[in-house]
Amino acid sequence: MAEKNHHGCASSSRTLREKSAYMAKKQIANIHISETAARSALRRKKQKEHELSQTQDQMMTLEREIASIETANINKETMTAMQNASKALKVIHGGLTVDKVDQTMYFHSQTLAASQLPAMYKY
Question: What residues does each domain of the chain span?
């Protein structure tokens, strides 16, 4: 039978011990759960950091690819402009030959010489 204390109640020391033991077991279980949760959170954090690093590396690769594409596009536009300029120069100079240039220079020198003759006889 349960012991009675001086108040006439059953001894609560046994109940207190049981409650204390139960609370201690519960706290130990909570500590274990907290450790497990902390480890799990740390693993998730490391995984997310790894994913972030991979994403940053992928972004850098994409930025390099974009820069390469832009450079290639500029080179293509430059080449197209140079081809168009070459075609235009061929059209402009298409009728020119060395003989035509020599003939033009000869007529120009003759015209220049003829224009200077009257100035020589002024005085």
Answer: 13-114
